[in-house]
């Protein structure tokens, strides 16, 4: 259903114009070695599956500006979040540290407000700095439901915490600006480039945070509604090729990994879904990705119009992915590819063109990369490594040593166990809690890219080897225990702050539809847990 209307042709003309100007004015890679430091623009969206930026998943939807960045820059084929949920992931990106070091255990707990980020350091070293849109890397945000669900994940009950995922079409074929808040922030960033950045005599770093393609709130689910609505307009839906949409294979409920079952149940996904429902959810999600791509395009076009594109390194990424009904789930909070694999594209002076990088990388690499671009000494205590040697297209022998693995971990809501993922080579190893009480998972991504067959029992030597590597990075049983203790302390403090209102408040969180059927049962389960 790809559209070929007037607006579509206008986008094509704009891309061609940007491409021509880029080729004509493109500086040689040696520019980075000179005296002029480049500007930097980082566009970070929310919930984009990184696999959409390359074949074959990119066949489902038109993403012209992501494709533009691939044409004139570099795409990472194996980029991962360090924690597949908003605040902990962003805390890792802004600090350069793994989640167990930031102790950003859930969406309520992130960095301290005065934490020194890479942008702070760039500002101290002569960069003009500006931020617009979603940041979400400090503590104290998100709903009460979100934090209480995370704190009580070890309680012996099972409650639906989300509305059933659904789609909603709005407007007509001329309705372009669906996510108004994101477009407003994009406009602010564009105006800043055109009116302020264009006049700077020193380099600048600009950050734009987008909410899309995160699903929208679902008011029908009640007062403390979650966000289970995939919303778009016919204009964006026409960018999607329905015939290319894959319907994911599901295990039966009885065959699911126990943590997956908990996640699927709390996300309200254990009911019956028709193939058309699943296809529509995925189509609407892809359409939301297309709208996100258009906002990226506005930034690129503004830089070109201001004569700044040839002086600016542009980076596009996301905090995590979106399962879009893979493994019988939507949202993130999972180590499966749809949730943990993020887009990462970079273009600009000194960046190799049309380069696809296979190395595994993650969001903690953003911090040292930013400092490297700005020629600021990189602290030795960071979890990440600069991506610049890879981005410059250097031979492997010339690239400084970097780990052959990436780490991701999760300690928040909708999952009833701390989860750890080690990705290296063709293997993805996922382990839980103390490493013994929950069965681990091992996937051969070269043979099983959809992660349908857990081969942990088949390859015990590989499991042992990967577990040893993981333990050399993080003492994960100890971290899991720390999180459990933190959850209890936080919950007790919160309950005491409510006094006599406790029973009423806890009953009316996002799980209210289930809780109110047997409130005493669930309160007793919490008392037993404590």
From TrEMBL:
Role summary: Catalyzes the hydrolysis of pseudosubstrates such as p-nitrocatechol sulfate and p-nitrophenyl sulfate. Catalyzes the hydrolysis of the 2-sulfate groups of the 2-O-sulfo-D-glucuronate residues of chondroitin sulfate, heparin and heparitin sulfate. Acts selectively on 2-sulfoglucuronate and lacks activity against 2-sulfoiduronate.
Keywords (A to Z) from UniProt: Calcium, Glycoprotein, Hydrolase, Lysosome, Metal-binding, Secreted, Signal
PANTHER family: ARYLSULFATASE K
Phylogenetic placement of the source organism: Eukaryota, Metazoa, Chordata, Craniata, Vertebrata
Pfam families (alphabetical): Sulfatase
Needed cofactors: Ca(2+)
Subcellular location(s) per record: Lysosome; Secreted
Enzymatic class: hydrolase
One CC-aspect GO term: lysosome
Alphabetized GO MF terms: arylsulfatase activity; glucuronate-2-sulfatase activity; metal ion binding
Protein name in UniProt: Arylsulfatase K
Family: Belongs to the sulfatase family.
Record's signal peptide: 1-25
Record EC number: 3.1.6.1, 3.1.6.18
Sequence ranges assigned to domain Sulfatase N-terminal in this UniProt record: 38-374
Gene3D superfamilies for this protein: Alkaline Phosphatase, subunit A
Catalysed reaction equations from the record: Hydrolysis of the 2-sulfate groups of the 2-O-sulfo-D-glucuronate residues of chondroitin sulfate, heparin and heparitin sulfate; an aryl sulfate + H2O = a phenol + sulfate + H(+)
């Amino acid at each position: 259903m790809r559209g070929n209307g007037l607006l579509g042709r206008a986008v094509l003309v704009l891309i061609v114009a940007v491409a021509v100007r880029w080729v004509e004015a493109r500086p040689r890679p040696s520019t980075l070695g000179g005296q002029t430091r480049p500007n930097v623009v980082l566009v970070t969206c929310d919930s984009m599956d990184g696999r959409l930026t390359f074949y074959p998943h990119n066949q489902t939807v038109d993403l012209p500006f992501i494709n533009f960045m691939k044409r004139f820059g570099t795409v990472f084929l194996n980029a991962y979040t360090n924690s597949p949920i908003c605040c902990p992931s962003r805390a890792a990106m802004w600090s350069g540290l793994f989640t167990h070091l930031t102790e950003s255990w859930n969406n309520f707990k992130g960095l301290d407000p005065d934490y020194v980020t890479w942008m702070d350091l760039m500002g101290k070293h002569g960069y003009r700095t500006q931020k617009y849109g979603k940041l979400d890397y400090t503590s104290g945000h998100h709903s009460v439901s979100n934090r209480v669900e995370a704190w009580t994940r070890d309680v012996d009950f099972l409650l639906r915490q989300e509305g059933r995922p659904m789609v909603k079409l709005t407007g007509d074929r001329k309705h372009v600006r669906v996510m108004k808040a994101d477009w407003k922030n994009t406009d602010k960033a564009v105006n800043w480039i055109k009116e302020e950045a264009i006049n700077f005599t020193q380099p600048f770093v600009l950050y734009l945070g987008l909410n899309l393609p995160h699903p929208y709130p679902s008011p029908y689910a009640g007062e403390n509604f979650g966000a289970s609505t995939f919303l778009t307009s016919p204009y964006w839906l026409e960018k999607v090729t329905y015939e290319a949409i894959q319907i994911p294979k599901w295990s039966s409920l009885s065959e699911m990994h126990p943590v997956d079952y908990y996640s699927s149940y709390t996300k309200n996904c254990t009911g019956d879904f028709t193939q058309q429902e699943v296809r529509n959810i995925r189509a609407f999600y892809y359409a939301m990705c297309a709208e996100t791509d258009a906002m990226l395009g506005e930034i690129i076009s503004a830089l070109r119009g201001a004569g700044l594109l040839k002086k600016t390194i542009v980076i596009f990424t996301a905090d995590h992915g979106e399962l879009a009904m893979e493994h019988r789930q939507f949202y993130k909070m999972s180590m499966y590819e749809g949730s943990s694999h993020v887009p990462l594209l970079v273009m600009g002076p000194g960046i190799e063109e049309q380069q696809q990088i296979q190395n595994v990388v993650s969001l903690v690499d953003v911090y040292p990369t930013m400092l490297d671009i700005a020629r600021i000494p990189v602290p030795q205590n960071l979890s990440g490594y600069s991506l610049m040697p890879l981005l410059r297209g250097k031979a492997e022998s010339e690239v400084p040593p970097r780990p052959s693995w990436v780490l991701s971990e999760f300690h928040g809501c909708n999952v009833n166990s701390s989860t750890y993922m080690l990705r290296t080579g063709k293997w993805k190893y996922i382990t839980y809690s103390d490493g013994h009480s929950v069965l681990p998972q091992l996937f051969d991504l070269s043979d099983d890219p959809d992660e349908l067959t857990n081969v942990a029992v088949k390859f015990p030597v590989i499991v042992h080897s990967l577990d040893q590597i993981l333990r050399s990075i993080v003492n994960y049983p100890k971290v899991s225990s720390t999180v459990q203790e933190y959850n209890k302390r936080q919950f007790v403090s919160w309950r005491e702050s409510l006094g006599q209102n406790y029973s009423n408040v806890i009953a009316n969180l996002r799980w209210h539809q289930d809780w109110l059927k047997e409130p005493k049962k669930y309160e007793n389960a919490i008392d037993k847990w404590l």
